[in-house]
Structure formats: C-alpha cells, structure tokens
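seq/struct pair 1
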Amino acid sequence: MRQAARDLAGGAAVAWALPADRTCAGVARSLLGDLLGALRVPRESARDAQMMIGEVATNALEHAGGPGELWAYRASGGVVCGVFDRLPEKAPPLRPVPFGAQDLMCEYGRGLALVDVYAKGEWGVHRSRGQLGGHVPGKVVWFRVDAELPALRCGGPAETARNLRDRLCARGVNGVIVSQSPRLALVSVCHGLDVWCRAGGFQVREPASGRSCVRPAEEIAAVAEHAVRRYEELCRGAS
C-alpha cells in the first residue's frame, strides 16, 4: 500500500477491483483505510472516508449490479475517492433522499445522504470508463477527502501533454492530438474539448460554455478523469 500511496502522491490514479458480492463494502473500506493511512490522512477523516466508501460500494452492489473498481487520485488539495460501476444510465440522485423518506428511491438515497453530510457536499456522480482494462463505460460516484500531499515536480509542457495523452489512450479515448511549442502544448480530445499544458499546470476549456478552469500540474489524474468524463458525455450524446 505504501507504493500505491507514493504513486498517488506522484500524480497517478490508483485503482483496485472490488468483489461483486456482500464483501465489497468491507474490502473497499479496508483498501481505502490502508491507503489514507499511508498518506497520513488524520484518523477521523480516514474513518469518515471508510464509512462513505462502504456506503457507495453497497449502493453500487444493490443498484448497479456490483461495484467494479475502487479509485483514488489527488485533486483540489486532497484525495478523490470513488467507486466505478458499469451502469452509466442508472445514476443515483445528486440530491439524496432525506432520512425517513418513504418512496421508491429511499433505499438508494439513505446511504448517499450520509455521504452528502460527511463529504460536506463535495461528492458527485458522472460518466466515465474503467481504469483496470477493457475501456468499459460506466459511471463513478466520488467524494473528496482533505489531505496534505507533497508538492510534485513536473516536466515541461510537451512532456506533460504526452503524459496526459498516454493516460487518455490507456482509457480508450481515441483521436487525441498533441500540438506543442517550446512554452505551451495543446491536447485536443474531441468536440472542442481542449487542454492547454503550461509550465506548472493545465487550462481546460469547456466546449459548451467556452469557459476555462485551471488546475495545478500535480492534478494530472484529475484532469485526465475530467477529459474522460467529457469524452463519454460528448461522444455518446449524454447531457
């Protein structure tokens, strides 16, 4: 697990296969607890994260035919943790059903209501692709955990762009084009989704709004995941 923690701190996304049975929640809690411990996340925050990942894994088992993968990568000053499954069309509600609600979504929403509280609203669900081979489409339910991670020394724009391209190709994102100059590189994904690689970070341009967001270089895994998400949404006509 120390190697996984070093890989994550170095900008990689780490992933494990989860069993498609009742042991999935316990396996997810154990793996994530070991990872966050190796990253020296405070014990209380790690316990909360273990509780949340167990709820998310259980929901995937009960409502999506089973969790496929447990994910973790660095983003927004912390660690994003998630459970991927293979049913992109069957997404949980982004506004969890309150405790005590008696409707058809009650069982689905109850665990996610806990996630919403403990994650302080920093959670969500989106289309994606599996990370463990096969380029399987699906969705990921994720939340963020605060963590103090070391600064990451990154290469120049051209090297960073090639790194991002390789990550996207490994996820089955086709047609990625890299253009570069001495101080700037561009990764063109699809349908106007562009990622500009500059010294120290990324600028991601959203094709629908034309707006851009900026991310530091150490969050390359988060940038790759964002690009995979948009690729799935744009190329499959999802809203």
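seq/struct pair 2
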Amino acid sequence: MSASARRILKRRLARYGRDILLARQQLGAADNGEALHRLRIGLRQLRSLLRGLMALPGATALTPMSAQLRQLACAGNDWRDREVRLALLQQAAGEADSQAFAAWRRREVTALQAGRLDLQQQAKVLDRLLPALRRACVPLLARRNRRLRRTLRRALLQTRRRYRRARRDWQRQPDDALLAHRLRLLAKRLRYQIEAGGKLLGKRWQRRAQRARDWQQRLGDERDRQLLLQSIARDRIPLPAAAQRWLEQGGAAQAGERLPAAGVS
C-alpha cells in the first residue's frame, strides 16, 4: 500500500510536469488559443500537489519553488482574461460585425500572440525549476504511506475549512465581489488538491471536488461577464450596438458556460 501511494503521487508529479512543458511549447503557435489555459491549469495542479507535500518535515525547499510557479501563472492572468474576452466578443458580434470592431479584433489577436511569446520566454525558467522540484520531492515521496496520507489529508481539510467558511461568508453577502472572488479561488484550490490525491481519496472527496468545480464555474462565469463589460468601456472597444445589448442582457454568462474558465490562480 505504501508503494502504491508513492507511485500515485510520483505519477501525478511527472504528468503535471509533462503537461506544463507541452503547453509551454505550444504557446508560440498562432492557431493554438488554449495553450495558455493549459499551462495555467498545469501550474495550478502542480502547486496543489506541492501544497500537501510542503507540510512534511524537510520540505522547506518547496516553498520558494511553489512561489516561482505562482509568479509564472500570474504573469499569464491578463493575457488569459483577454483571450476569453476576445472569444466572447467575437461570439457576441456574430453577424453584427463592423469594420471598426474587425480592426480592433485584428490588433487584439496580434497583441495576444506577442503576449504568449513573451510568456513562453519567461517560462524558460521551468527548464531549471522542474528538475530541481522533482529532486526535492524524492525524499518526501519516500515517506511511509501513513505519513503521506495523514499530511495530505491535513492540508486538504485545512483548505476545505477555508472554502466552507468563504462560502458561508459569500452566502450572507452575495453581492460582495471580493467575497465571491475568494470563494471561487478556494473552490478551485480544493478541487485541484482533491484531484492531485487521486485514488488516495475516496468517492466522497471526488463528489466534493465536483461540487467545488460547479461553484468555481458558476462564480467564474459571472466574473468573466463583469470584467468583460468593464473592459469594453475601459478600452473603448468598438463593439456593435446589437452585441452590446446581447452582453448586457446576460449573453456572456450563457456563452461562458461553453468556454474554458479563466481567472487568477
């Protein structure tokens, strides 16, 4: 059983690393609009796994490495928000496209590609960081199964307590954007920590992960809509009037259900 726990966590660690490097490689492809999304997911998944391991004795080296992963993920926040914005606005414009909006769209596509290329350069730090991280995890993953389970469960329960408290706070003040934002982040964190544990956790935890994902999606769709409406005015995007009305009537929230979620990690 001990070997099984170690094997599961090692496989997770290796898979997250492969996914991250593949997404980084694909950032430079002009026709790949989801590479940044996958890169940020991979970084978040890896940090969720580390969150449990960092509670083990001798894991202090993981703290600055996790911080570097977070810094890299944050560097892509604005670009990912702009990717989602572009996709939603193109859907909103539809047949009501205009010459001014088409010109803005071309400029935005060019800017996004430049941003992804810049992020790809920043992500070269992963060539050094990921091998160092794997080396630091070797002695931690050699611990006995009981110790690994207990430590991961403790970290998971801590996140769940914070998530449930944030949910109660938001339910008391559902119009508070900061409380909604905090709840969304903690739902995301809980979901990825559960997924990192995989078969080490039971079906009850898997159901909790699904519920957390539902909350993340629900709050993320509304956040995307609000940011979208704000950015249209702030950046003076020449959106056709019909598309503007569609967005104000909630069309963005419906469309967001069919788009990958974006936001900060």
